[in-house]
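Hey team,

Filing this mostly as a record. A colleague (T.K.) asked me to run one chain through the structure pipeline before their review meeting, and I want the input and output archived in the tracker in case anyone asks later how it was produced. No errors, nothing strange. Just documentation.

Input sequence:
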Amino acid sequence: MDRLTSCRACLAADPHLFMPLGNHSPAQMLIRPEDLDKPQPSFPLNAQVCLECGLIQVADQIPAGFFRHYLYVPSGAATMHRHFGELAGVLAAKAGPDGLIVDIGCNDGLLLAACNALGAKTLGIDPAENIAEIARGRGVKVHVSYFDPDTAQEIHDRHGAAKVIVTTNTFNHIGDLHTFMRGIVRLLAPDGVFVIEVPRAKELLEHNEFENIYHEHVSEFSLLSMVKLGAFFDLEVTDVHHFPNIHGGSMRVFLTRKSAGVPAAPVVRAMLDEEREAGMLDPESYAALVRKVDAMGAEIRAMLDDMKARGLKIAGYGASARGNTLITYFGIDKKYLDFLVDKNPLKHGLYSPNTRIPIKPVEALETEKPDVLFVLAWNFFEEIKEQQQAFLARGGKFLVPLPTPRIVG
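Output structure:
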């Protein structure tokens, strides 16, 4: 099934199809050298939006077991070390001295290691054994499994109820949100809090961030969609923190049981009003996004064509999933980009999906000396620019595609 017939959050019928992005291989399905000549599985990437709750979503077509070997880790960005250090303090305070913090999709353990450093009691859940090993190396206890009601019961029986359940940049990967939420309410203590951190759909709409739509990101959440989803499970949104500079604009949402009687902070109503005023339930807002994105693609290709005509060597910075959506949809392939660099060693020696561009360590910038860096990981641009002062000093320039294309020298 390549289109949804109902919203995965509020269950409203027939989400509005606004942007068919064409066929894409999964954005994290990097290609091994021995598989370069083999066809990759690819699936239609159809962006739909629920006009009842503002959830942007794609059909879940990822093969079963896909996340058991995973390639994204947050540790490559200093920004995320600082961000998770701050979040650890928030979670430890919510949990208290004896409360259990469970991180679903704990990845390489960056967040829980920070919680452990504060003396918290923690447990990670993640389906990827290769990433769980990295987390264990940080002293994080990990239960390797997908999260569902059975896993929740097993954890509850073994460790007791969780005072805090947290999931960062994982909730947007969940195809069946209602089954996942049944697991949450099974594991969560009566006075516990469920904390979700994800990119926010309002920023996607306002800043042209279409490339954050990919098969592994099956949902881009509005706060309204969180409110409506929580209501099915007697959970209420009682607080929200907004982070405009994390992953292009993120929110941290706190849900508590209705029976706990926690009053909602004023920011909840304010952000819900913002979303309605931004046109998140208006189909014309999404038609405007498509027009802006297509114009942006034409502008970027013209810039790259001009650079190539002048004989410039261009590399891409960041073999990210969102970057793969961007170059695939815009038709930016090996004709334009000689190679990509990435700080994550799990990606080195592999090739980008769809476009088959080789991925090298960041150190290759010193040996290959490109003239231009096309910043696919644009959401970390300030950090990248700071790290690449030598590139700038020798006359290098950055092409930053979003929110609007610009050259930085």
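Quick notes for T.K.: The chain has two domains: 67-281, 300-408. The chain has a mean pLDDT of 93.
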